[in-house]
Amino acid sequence: MRVLHYIDHVRREDLLSAYLTALTTVQEQLGVEVCVATRRDAIGQKLRSFRPHIVHVHTIWSWRAAQWVRLAGKQGCGVVVSPHGALDAYCCRHERRWSKLAMTVLYQRRMVSRADAILASTDHEAARLARLGWKQNCVFEHRRHSQKTLRPG
Fold first, then answer.
1. Would the CA dihedral through 133, 66, 57, 100 be positive or negative?
2. What pTM, to 2 d.p., does this model score?
3. Residues linked to residue 150 through DSSP beta bridges, in sequence order
4. Pairing with 115, which of 30, 135, 150, 151 sits 20 to 30 Å away (CA)?
5. How confident is the model at residue 15 (pLDDT cuts 50, 70, 90)?
6. Which CB contacts under 8 angstroms, 24+ apart, belong to 11-18?
7. Burial letters for 125-146: b for 16+ Cβ neighbours within 10 Å, e otherwise?
């Protein structure tokens, strides 16, 4: 199996970068072929050369991530999106509120609707995603390794 992870940037002292490094290390130990792409990579070229089975996007507010989701879906890849807490109600209301509203309208909802799965980090994030009601079937994987399938009512 080949998994391509997309993250906007990899930085030495960034928590998300450290998480991605740990995740890819474990995946490689399990025999998964792993590739990490950033916004500096050419999307089409990377998808054609690596030919992933799954594209895992580790951001929710990036226009570039939305392009990865769209093109990966067109190429028949499974698409997983991990918000990593970025959809928290406080963040949405107080951090760049108006630009986030514009991003939601312009591309974020479509990006989420194209994803095959959304992975939530916490129960709170899973509940927030369910309240948003963006997808009929979402899989939420929590750090404590429980798994739920939510269907908004």
1. negative
2. 0.76
3. 138
4. 30
5. confident
6. 16/58, 16/84
7. bbebbbebebbeebbbbeeeee
